[in-house]
Amino acid sequence: MRVALGAASGTLAVSALLFSSAGVLWGLSYPRYRGTLVEGGAVAVDTGHNQEFHSWLWLVLGAGLLASVLSIAVFVRSERSRGVAMQVWLGLLAGGGTAYAHAAGLSLARWRVPVPDPATLHPGDEVDVLATVGLGTPISFLFPAFAAMLAYWSCMVVAPRSAPGAPGGPRADAAGKPGES
Q1: Confidence band (pLDDT; 50, 70, 90) for 165?
Q2: What whole-number distance in Å separates Cα of residue 90 and Cα of residue 147?
Q3: C-alpha 176: how far from its chain's center?
């Protein structure tokens, strides 16, 4: 139990660091538009080529890749914590990490492109406007979680079995012959 809690805590710490870094990278590339202020306080913006979707796609696919790499690393580095509980834990961390990366990236983007003071703006002024990239659908959380769990499961399937008598491996019978566990 103690080993499993230690491995889960370490995995939480590493995933927080990794997903924070991913959020910062995503926030630095967050889409924004250049617009011109028109009469009535509206901003005329030339919308790009689906920048919001591309940004969302990079976030979700990047989180899925990051979650898969983390799952494989945990499987390789922590033999004693292998099992379904760790697999589910990695899935939960991937879904939560994606939400955290989105929040961190959005906060950074809002800090980099602040809303200008309306009192200082006049029609014809150029302003930067952030695009709206929301997580929206459950696939945003489910894809990285599924990728993490699939990577971990794949490792469990292809990993060689432990030696007879070792935890999780086949047990030897009374005659010393390997039996099923």
Answers
A1: very low
A2: 10
A3: 47
How many angstroms separate the most distant Cα atoms in the chain?
91
- Tokens representing 77? 């580095």
How many degrees, rounded to 5, is the angle at CA 101 between CA 97 and CA 107? 145
pLDDT digits over 36-62, tens only?
888 877 777 777 677 888 888 899 999
Classify residue 127 as exposed, middle or buried by CB count within 10 Å of its CB (0-12, 13-18, 19+).
Answer: middle
Tokens 């469990």 correspond to 156
Give me 57's structure tokens: 């796609």
Q: Which residues pair with 172 in a beta bridge?
A: 178
C-alpha to C-alpha distances, 18 to 58, 63, 70, nearest whole angstrom: 15, 10, 9
Strands across the sheet with 32-37, in order? Answer: 43-45, 32-37, 126-130
pLDDT computed for residue 31 by the predictor? 86
Mean pLDDT (the chain) is 84
Residue length of the chain: 181
Residues 93 and 15 sit within 8 Å (Cβ to Cβ) = yes
Give bridge partners of residue 36 from the DSSP assignment. Answer: 44, 126
pTM confidence score: 0.78
